[in-house]
């Protein structure tokens, strides 16, 4: 199905992000605006997305994960850094070249209520991408393609003339997914795709997304705050805190052998759906709130809430690298972690 | 005053009891039956978790207990809400005002829309003491600072004059908790208190809530859809579906061996480690529309073990027993085939 040029092989990087930065300027004054600072939403992150894999990004609100999604779609212009799609820097593209790349990177949004135009029929919503990229489906063929797409996501193709309000939340999310699939993209960026859905419906949508990934050989960037769902769907996971990546690794490395204190705290804070041993479970309860990204702490950004913080943490920014002590690569703890004192800690977790 | 009198516990009478409650909403499509015969009790020091998806009637039940249901379009069509044996639904509005906040208080999900944006938090906290306790402004403000300290808001004295938007989400939820606690009520109803919060902040807030409940020996009704939060704090659980309670159980029992197919489906659809790479279990179909609840058991179109009787007869809440007939304390299930569900 993927007819794009130079299809990457499974496991090879399809998208590479290098030192990506997005600062939103803070201005003061009405007539003579001057910049008084910047919200450092994304402040130097690097990762790669490989062909056919799911990369999960977790983090709390305000950590910059949705901004990353928008940057990858070029809905926002990065302040600096590179986004390499098959070696081509998306951040520098414009016009026709950008349009061509965007065909291959699509997005599924969080809120199925506001991301679908209430005045358009399902057929028009799912078929709209064909208006922008007419080369994908010739005019006479479009209704048929839309019907096929609806069928693929498990909706009755007869619903093509209905409006979004006639569907439930789960069905609407399927419409959003069908729209994302319309142009046969290689990458789908999912920003909290199930968090607005009821518990019993979430599993249906997750299963659909996994089935589609196998069927169309898609790569997912899966952004969510629900750690157990991210673990279920992801091959690799990145943990974000205040605009930076704290830790990256395979799902087993991150969930079973986290070495960054923030990851450890995050995992231990997730309520477990198992009441046995709830009294004995060790939990790391962080104090305070996430600092403002307009004025992040010096050095390590997590240090203000970290129980391990020392002098060094305030002065030196810890780099995202495999910690020295785990360098030999023989343990699952040898994965990149941005902490000066990265170490394993026993916590019961998701 | 009657406050002192009612503070005493009456033996044999539950602190709060909802009995066969029915609530309807008038809509264009006809009557939406939001609550169809819900009964539960909560005692002092006890945490009851009401678990359900959106539209299951869990919040409407809570609003009816508090007496803040919008009528119309809402209408209580039957049942009782007994606080220490006294029916709140037959009280005059004046009497209810004395109970609301003073005896039964509520914590809402979205603190930003529940707090008044144009009044300082100190004013809003103090209002409770001025109205219910007749304190002066100065005394009320001092009380407000004390409360903010109690819910561990740093620098309470300086922040008492701040407005809700100046606080973070977690801090606002603490203010909501402070407000609910202000008059030391006997029952607190928390409607999705941490749903809008991040995981690390959620842990802080749930911890605080549990600690305060212990200290004040309050009854807590926790309304949520999160199976993790329930497992962490609840003593007993009532599972709701389409306006009915489908299962009652102590917390450990429910997770170990659910006695209703809906509960089992919810538990099975949690992503688990050993299911990695496999398909998640998913309950098929959608929750029903409240204007057209299926006949018989409301869950039957989505149930894997539904038979003819499930489509024709509404299953009553039956006592759940061990295979040999020994009763299990506090367990009921509204499934014709609960025996198969629990004992396999």
Q: What gross morphology of chain B would you assign?
A: globular
Report how far apart the termini of chain A are: 36 Å
Task: Name the poorly predicted regions of chain A.
Answer: 1-6
Mean of all residue-level pLDDT scores of chain B: 88
Largest interface: A-B, 39 and 44 residues
The number of distinct structural domains of chain B comes to: 2
Order of helices and strands of chain A: EEEHEEHEHHHEHEHEEHHH
Secondary structure tally, helices of chain A = 10
Instruction: Give the overall form of chain A.
Output: globular
Compute the gyration radius of chain B: what is it?
21 Å
The CATH superfamily name of the largest domain in chain B is P-loop containing nucleotide triphosphate hydrolases
The neighbouring-strand order within the major sheet of chain B is 6-7-8-3-9-10-12-11
What are the key terms here?
heterodimer, A: 350 residues, alpha/beta, 6-stranded mixed sheet, 4-stranded antiparallel sheet, 10 helices, globular, disordered N terminus, B: 344 residues, Rossmann fold, 2 domains, 8-stranded mixed sheet, 14 helices, 12 strands, transport (chain A), ATP binding (chain A), ABC_transp_ATP-bind (chain A)
């Amino acid at each position: 199905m993927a007819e794009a040029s130079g299809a990457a092989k499974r496991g090879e990087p399809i998208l590479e992000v290098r030192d990506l930065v997005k600062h939103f300027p803070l201005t003061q004054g009405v007539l003579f605006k001057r910049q008084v600072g910047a919200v450092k939403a994304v402040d130097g992150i690097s990762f790669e997305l490989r062909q056919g894999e799911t990369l999960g990004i977790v983090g709390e609100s305000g950590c910059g994960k949705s901004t990353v999604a928008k940057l990858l779609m070029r809905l926002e212009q990065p302040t600096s850094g590179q986004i390499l799609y098959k070696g081509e820097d998306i951040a520098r593209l414009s016009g026709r070249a950008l349009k061509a790349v965007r065909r291959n990177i699509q997005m599924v949004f969080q809120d199925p209520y506001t991301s679908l135009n209430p005045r358009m029929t399902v057929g028009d919503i799912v078929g709209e991408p064909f208006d922008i990229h007419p080369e994908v489906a010739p005019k006479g063929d479009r209704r048929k393609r839309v019907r096929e797409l609806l069928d693929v996501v498990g909706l009755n193709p007869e619903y093509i003339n209905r409006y979004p309000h006639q569907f439930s939340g789960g069905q609407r999310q399927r419409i959003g997914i069908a729209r994302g699939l319309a142009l046969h993209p290689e990458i789908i960026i999912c920003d909290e795709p199930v968090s607005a859905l009821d518990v019993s419906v979430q599993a249906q949508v997750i299963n659909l997304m996994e089935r589609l990934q196998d069927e169309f050989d898609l790569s997912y960037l899966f952004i969510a705050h629900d750690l157990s769902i991210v673990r279920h769907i992801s091959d690799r996971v990145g943990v974000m805190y205040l605009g930076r990546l704290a830790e990256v690794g395979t799902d087993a490395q991150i969930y079973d052998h986290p070495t960054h204190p923030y990851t450890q705290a995050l995992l231990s804070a997730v309520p477990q759906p198992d009441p046995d041993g709830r009294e004995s479970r060790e939990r790391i309860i962080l104090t305070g709130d996430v600092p403002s990204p307009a004025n992040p702490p010096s050095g390590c950004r997590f240090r203000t809430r970290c129980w391990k913080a020392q002098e060094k943490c305030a002065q030196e920014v810890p780099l995202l690298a495999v910690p020295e002590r785990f360098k030999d690569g023989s343990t699952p703890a040898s994965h990149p972690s941005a902490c000066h004192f990265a170490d394993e800690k026993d916590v019961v977790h998701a | 005053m009657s406050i002192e009198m009612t503070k005493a516990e009456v033996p044999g009478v539950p602190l709060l009891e909802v009995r066969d409650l029915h609530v309807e909403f008038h809509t264009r499509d006809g009557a939406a039956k939001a609550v169809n015969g819900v009964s539960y009790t909560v005692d002092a020091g006890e945490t009851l978790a009401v678990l359900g998806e959106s539209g299951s009637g869990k919040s409407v039940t809570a609003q009816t207990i508090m007496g803040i249901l919008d009528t119309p379009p809402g209408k209580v069509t039957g049942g009782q809400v007994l606080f220490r044996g006294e029916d709140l639904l037959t009280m005059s509005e004046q009497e209810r005002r004395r109970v609301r906040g003073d005896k039964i208080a509520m914590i809402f999900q979205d603190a930003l829309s529940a707090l008044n944006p144009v009044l300082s938090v100190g004013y809003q906290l103090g209002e409770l003491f001025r109205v219910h306790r007749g304190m002066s402004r100065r005394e009320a403000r001092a009380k407000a600072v004390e409360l903010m300290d109690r819910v561990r808001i740093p620098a309470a004295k300086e922040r008492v004059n701040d407005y809700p938007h100046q606080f973070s989400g977690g801090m606002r939820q603490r203010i909501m908790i402070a407000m609910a606690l202000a008059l030391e009520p006997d029952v607190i109803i928390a409607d999705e208190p941490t749903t809008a919060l991040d995981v690390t902040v959620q842990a802080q807030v749930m911890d605080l809530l549990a600690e305060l409940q212990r200290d004040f020996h309050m009854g807590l009704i926790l309304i949520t859809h999160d199976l993790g939060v329930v497992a962490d704090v609840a003593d007993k659980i009532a599972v709701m579906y389409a306006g009915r309670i489908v299962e009652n159980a102590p917390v450990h029992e429910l997770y170990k061996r659910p006695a209703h197919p809906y509960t089992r489906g919810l538990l099975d659809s949690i992503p688990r480690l050993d299911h990695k790479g496999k398909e998640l279990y998913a309950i098929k179909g959608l929750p029903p529309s409240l204007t057209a609840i299926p006949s018989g058991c409301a869950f039957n179109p989505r149930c894997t073990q539904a038979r003819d009787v499930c489509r024709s007869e509404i299953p009553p809440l039956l006592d759940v027993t061990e295979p040999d007939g020994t009763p299990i304390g506090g367990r009921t299930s509204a499934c014709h085939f609960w025996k198969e569900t629990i004992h396999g």
